[in-house]
């Protein structure tokens, strides 16, 4: 049997039916399973209908009514109060029925008020509006048939219009508040989901930047062994050691990134960052590339660069060197980093286009083609810009410019 929530919504659909649950827009005639709060509210509504019916009965006893009419009033009033328990399942039907009965009978007034309030809360204005209008129209036959003099008729019209207006307005206010609550929850959920998505994208960029560099170096060493199987044992041992070191570093980087992912669960308030490189680590990166056989020249003309911008520069150079290894082969690569505080930081990575590198068995280093796109996004997020492409001189150049403000705060560090 399908479990239903308080407004007739299946439990497995509760998350997706959140607007209906908050606003009470359940299907007409749907089976209802009340929560504890629903039972409390429905009990109070039933008692309110009974109280209004009792007060109306006290006033009715003061009038000389025929016994059959009095008996009909009492039976109908009691049944209407009991029918209040159906207000969640058939709110519109209950309100229309009690409104029609109230066009002549007085003791259904309590149930009629509760039913109108339920419709105003649980149904949109295009439905609750006509129901409220029907309640106004039923005042006409009641005033024409029941009160005995003009004063009583005027009092009945004033009281009826006031009660209908107040109850309907109260229901509209309650519904508007529920809509506001649902809207705020939607915004909070959307903001949380957006934050998770941004964090996933950040971690994905981090994995690409780190692992693409490590694995490309490892593939370069392995390709050298495959290309020169007759190399001296000492050379083979050196390359094998470099492969082992690169593989160990790649696994270590992957372990650190996965550690961040494990800490990024829904129960974590703060996602820890793995240790990040800065511009001071750039010479070590260049030296690592040289040990892998690349001809890299570094010209570093920037001083105490903020950690955030230094990290961006490091990642730009790292990706540019990785692309040079993949696509340009054994050609010289020049890296120039310059800038002054209060102006701009610039980085330029330049290499001849040359011929496509020869790989053993025709193999090529794989690439997703997203590296330069990611670098462009990184530079733009840091408030800078990035350009890349071939030059008329037959070189491929990656240039980036990043802001370097006079004063650096923690907010400047991404």
UniProtKB/TrEMBL annotation:
Keyword Kinase: yes
Residues that span the membrane, as ranges: 39-57, 69-86, 98-121, 154-173
Keyword Hydrolase: no
A Pfam family recorded for this sequence: HisKA_3
Listed GO MF terms: kinase activity
Segment forming the signal sequence: none
Catalytic class of the enzyme: transferase
SUPFAM superfamilies: ATPase domain of HSP90 chaperone/DNA topoisomerase II/histidine kinase
InterPro entries xref list: HATPase_C_sf, Sensor_HK_TwoCompSys, Sig_transdc_His_kin_sub3_dim/P
Catalytic reaction(s) noted: ATP + protein L-histidine = ADP + protein N-phospho-L-histidine
Domain (Signal transduction histidine kinase subgroup 3 dimerisation and phosphoacceptor): residue spans on this chain: 199-264
Protein EC: 2.7.13.3
Keywords: ATP-binding, Kinase, Membrane, Nucleotide-binding, Phosphoprotein, Transferase, Transmembrane, Transmembrane helix, Two-component regulatory system
PANTHER family in the record: NITRATE/NITRITE SENSOR PROTEIN NARX-RELATED (PTHR24421), NITRATE_NITRITE SENSOR PROTEIN NARQ (PTHR24421:SF10)
Protein's name in the database: histidine kinase
